[in-house]
Amino acid sequence: MERLRSELRIQAFLRTCAASGLMATVARKGDGDAGAVFLKINRFKAGCEVLSGVTGSDGAPAWLRATGPAPVSERDADLYLARQATYDSDLWVLEVEDPKAQFRPEGKILDV
């Protein structure tokens, strides 16, 4: 099965968020074809969650809770993403403002 281009995945997330009444912003633009995709879900007072796009053990797209199972501060989320960008300059970061915890990406969410 062919993988969907990173830029198209980001555009789909932006449309999904807009249709759900959620604000989403491309915080970092990466390689349009194969850049890794990270989601920074900002729940404000409840903290942030960073999800990294991965392939599950069954070969299906999934998400890894990159900053662990518990929410982290926005500063810690940003520091994590900055570190990842030093390893992979082609990565994408989509930030979703989700104070009511409505956003759910498609696919399984795996813990570290």
Q: Which characteristics define this entry?
A:
6 strands; hypothetical protein tt1805; 112 residues; six-stranded mixed β-sheet; alpha/beta
Please explain how this structure is put together.
This protein has 112 residues and is of the alpha/beta class. It has one domain (6-100): hypothetical protein tt1805. It is built from two helices and six strands; from the N terminus they run H-E-E-E-E-H-E-E. It has helices spanning 6-19, 74-87, and strands at 23-28, 37-42, 48-55, 61-65, 92-97, 108-110. A six-stranded mixed beta sheet has the order 1-5-2-3-4-6. The longest helix has 14 residues, at 6-19. The model has no long low-confidence stretch (mean pLDDT 92).
> What is CATH's topology name?
hypothetical protein tt1805
Count of distinct structural domains: 1
Spell out the helices and strands N to C.
HEEEEHEE
- Top-tier CATH class: Alpha Beta
The profile of the biggest β sheet is:
6 strands, mixed
Question: What's the short version?
Answer:
The protein is an alpha/beta fold. The protein contains two helices and six strands.
Please outline the helices and strands:
Blueprint: H1 6-19, E1 23-28, E2 37-42, E3 48-55, E4 61-65, H2 74-87, E5 92-97, E6 108-110
Parallel strand pairs: 2-5, 4-6
Antiparallel strand pairs: 1-5, 2-3, 3-4
